[in-house]
TrEMBL record:
Taxonomy, superkingdom: Eukaryota
UniProt protein name: LITAF domain-containing protein
GO cellular component, one term: cytoplasmic side of late endosome membrane
Record-linked Pfam families: zf-LITAF-like
Primary location: membrane
Cell compartments where the protein resides: Endosome membrane; Late endosome membrane; Lysosome membrane
Transmembrane spans: 66-89
All copies of domain LITAF, residue ranges: 29-113
Family, per entry: Belongs to the CDIP1/LITAF family.
Length: 114
């Protein structure tokens, strides 16, 4: 019986034989990748998307969060009535920021102020 081995398989078997003599007993080398992930803030950040595996500049969508409501309540208590206490709902810097991938629209993370 003749065993046919394709060239790429032979390369694998030869490499395995070569390494089995020197690397016996040692754990396989761990896969190490250096991925720089900038912490998500209120501004668009460069981040690697876990779904499409691309490094993208995230799209930011602002939405009212706990901090926005507390700021509104604080303004109301300080005398900002007649709608002036609703100013925080118009200011993006007082809202939470939701980062999404511009390619596949996956939510990459949410930056909450509180
Ligand atoms: Zn993506």
């Amino acid at each position: 019986m003749k065993l046919s081995v394709r060239p790429e398989q032979r390369y694998f078997f030869e490499n395995r034989r070569r390494h089995s003599s020197c690397c016996r007993g040692k754990p396989p080398p761990a896969f190490s990748a250096s991925i720089t992930v900038s912490p998500l803030g209120e501004n668009p950040a460069q981040i690697m998307c876990p779904k499409c595996h691309r490094t993208v500049l995230s799209e930011v969508e602002y939405s009212s969060g706990l901090f926005t409501y507390l700021f509104c309540g604080g303004l109301f208590l300080c005398g900002f009535v007649f709608g002036c206490c609703l100013i925080p709902f118009c200011v993006d810097r007082l809202k939470d920021a939701k980062h999404t991938c511009p390619t596949c629209k996956t939510v990459l993370g949410v930056y909450r102020r509180l």
